Amino acid sequence: MPLPDDDPWMEYKCNAKMIQYMGVGIPAIGSAIGFNRELVQHETNSLLAANHDQWVDCLNALLDSADFRKRLGQAGRQTSLDSYTVQGNIEQYEIAVLGSKY
User: Which residues of 61-75 are buried (b: 16+ CB within 10 A; e: fewer)?
Assistant: First the structure.
């Protein structure tokens, strides 16, 4: 998910596309900008690239190892499930709506 780094607005994008990629278990690469830096744990649940050379390195790392692709995809999916689904946030929702844990 490349984003231009010369546009100040990019720092404030939510980047739902990256969450969607992770949610379906695709080993994702995103620009090291804005919300992606909070969402992605580099080389743990996805990859971040800040420049052309890093994009090439990240793509090569994915091409070189099926195990790495699988591990990133699974970890990214788990991040998505834990942080961006109703099921993963039910306790926080109940506290916000009901005022306490059920």
Answer: bbeeeeeebeebbeb
Q: Encode pLDDT of 51-100 as tens digits.
A: 999 999 999 999 999 999 999 999 999 999 999 898 888 888 888 888 86
Contact 44, 93 (CB under 8 A): no
Q: How far apart are CA 6 and CA 60, in angstroms?
A: 25
Dihedral sign (CA 5, 6, 11, 13): negative
With tokens 């969450």, the residue in question is 19
Q: How many CB atoms lie within 10 A of CB 45?
A: 21
> Please, what is the angle between helix 52-64 and helix 66-83, to 10°?
110
- Tokens of residue 80, six digits: 């998505």
What whole-number distance in Å separates Cα of residue 80 and Cα of residue 86?
A: 11
